[in-house]
Amino acid sequence: MRTPLHRRRFLGLLGTAAGLGATGVISAPDALAAPAPSWRSVVDDVRRETRWAWRNYVAKAFGHDQIKPVSGGFEEFFAPGHPVGLTIVEALDTLWLMELDSELEQGLDWVRRNLRFEIDAPFQVFETNIRMLGGLLSGYHCTRDTRLLELAADLGDRLLPAFSKSPSGVPYRFVNLLTGAVSRPETNLAETGTYITEFGALSKWTGDRRYVDAAKRAFEVTFDNRSPLDLLPFAVHAETGEWLNTTATVGPPADSYYEYLWDGWRLLGDRDLKSWYDTLVGGILAHQSEVVDGRLWFAQVDAFTGEIVSREQSELGSFFAGLLAESGRVREGRRYHDSWNAVQDRYGVLPEGIDYTTLAATSEGNQLRPEFADAAFNLWLATRDELYQRRAKKHYDLMKRTSKVRFGYTILTDVTTNPVVRGDFCPGYWWSEQLKYYYLMFGTAKRFDYRNHYLSTEGNLLKGARR
Predict the structure, then answer these.
(1) Which has the closest alpha carbon to 138: 93, 106, 103?
(2) CATH assignment of 21-300+395-463?
(3) What DSSP character marks residue 254?
(4) Going residue by residue through the chain (467 aa), what tens digit of pLDDT does each one get?
């Protein structure tokens, strides 16, 4: 998942082949060859680990947003004292894809009985969208449980004031789910441009265009204000649409903005979004790419002059290798993933940040990040090169070795020590992302359409469920 700093004609096209096939999106064969025995064992192991972690979550933290897997405690993600079952919602489509149907039914039963959004507290709009709205929509797509769609529509309505109350159409960062009060207009690209697929799916499945129209308008404001170099600074003021800084980056807090331009084209067939994506990625490749010691990286630069302002790279930016491959730039995607693989080879578990001139860690922790595995999955789909399966298996093995604790999997606070230093926290996105990428990459998932699918920035399956 790409998170800030912590890291397609419309209705008639969604759910069709429009915007796919002939547009440069790479399709995988519908029926894959049987996996080699070594990969089959990985698939079975991922499924066992998911079931084991789920049972611990149910025993220690069920209904709460996130488990503390070292102590056996729990915590809420959005607002203290207001659990919304974040882990459950994030896990629904993962459990369904893995055919863990009894565990899935536990989660669905909790959602039906307990999940409500009449909460008098400000919720971060971006995180609520990609995690809660996306999780409900992917759960609905997989199970066709209409209660999930009802909840998604209710939540979508509660998020819309962040857009409709903004003079520019760029959303505020926070909205009170009960009152609709908005706050925090100082925002960033990821938190203004990561809505089009969730809002698009909601518009499709409810017949209400308000959601997708709001998401596209927010994109348009920032794209139209791009620099002469076709670059975007990452900080923006929601009320004016004006930039608050001059620095362009492919990492946080901009990353998923670029992902959702491509995804909006891929899922919805919106040609404007593809044109905007092509323009901005052209600018990034022209002005931000830098080769150091034979490795491709993407510098942070001044969006108006192209001058490099930082060579620090966030691990969250490693997703960009997969996005490049998805969108037809396989060569650049391979090279960028090679660069991050060199970091994995050096440290084992990837640190949160590095100086790419030396590969020295600038942020020593690891938040159970999925971006490297996400990129490996997309590169494998694009190339069918077993290299990316091997890299993802190493990523999985290292996670098991370093992050598995008594009640689940935990973040690390320092990967540069031996042994590593552990925290006590399992983020909700772990349930939606890594586990799913590992499972899909190493086997033929019966319930996943390898030819025609869509996974969101949070790993939520919004197209491609096979029932």
Answers:
(1) 93
(2) 1.50.10.10
(3) T
(4) 443 333 322 333 333 333 333 223 333 333 344 555 579 999 999 999 999 999 999 999 999 999 999 999 999 999 999 999 999 999 999 999 999 999 999 999 999 999 999 999 999 999 999 999 999 999 999 999 999 999 999 999 999 999 999 999 999 999 999 999 999 999 999 999 999 999 999 999 999 999 999 999 999 999 999 999 999 999 999 999 999 999 999 999 999 999 999 999 999 999 999 999 999 999 999 999 999 999 999 999 999 999 999 999 999 999 999 999 999 999 999 999 999 999 999 999 999 999 999 999 999 999 999 999 999 999 999 999 999 999 999 999 999 999 999 999 999 999 999 999 999 999 999 999 999 999 999 878 999 999 999 999 999 999 999 98
Confirm if 220 and 283 have CB atoms less than 8 A apart: no
Half-sphere exposure of 456 (CA within 13 A, CB side): 32
Tokens of 351: 């640190």
CA atoms within 13 A on the CB side of 26: 18
- CA 9 from chain center: how many Å? 25
Burial, 291: exposed, middle or buried (Cβ in 10 Å; 0-12, 13-18, 19+)?
Answer: exposed
CB contact set of 23 (below 8 Å; sequence gap of 6+) = 265, 274
C-alpha dihedral over 98, 65, 189, 356, to 10 degrees?
-70
Q: Which residues pair with 187 in a beta bridge?
A: 236
